Amino acid sequence: MKQSTAVQGRAGAPHLRLVPADQMLDQMRDTFDAIARRAFEIFDGKGRTFGHELDDWFQAEAELLHPVHLEVSDADGALTVRAEVPGFDERDLEVSVEPTRLTISGTRESSEERKQGKTVYSERCSDRLFRAVELPKVVDTAGAMKATYDQGVLTITLPKADKTDGRRVTVEAKAPAAV
Description:
single chain; alpha/beta; five-stranded mixed beta sheet; 10 strands
């Protein structure tokens, strides 16, 4: 897999990181664990009553993960993915590309201090996003990928691989000639 790509932000300097799939898998596990911990906290806070585990899980996901809306288009020998990531900047984002999957993740930290009289209140907040999408065509991970980031929209262009759809390759065998 190609480990770097041209990614241009508003200032023109590349900042987005293309990470290997195994590193993204570790991040997926960490995100899953964080959601599981938060879902258990919700379950525990409700008196450990069974029957609402899925609701607790979805609530934990909603609290911990920022939604990422995607649009995938196929034209001119490449797939173009537009991802809406408002509030994040290119330094907060990581992308992993596999032949049939694209994964976008990001974390942003913010802190705020305010004074009330002589007391200083400090608040820290973390927001995460994670989105993995199965691509409709196989992409060439060694090809020239391009990504741009502008005003909360990440656009990634991935060259398609030659003559395969990524799901199933059918090889037709010819019957031996009759003698």
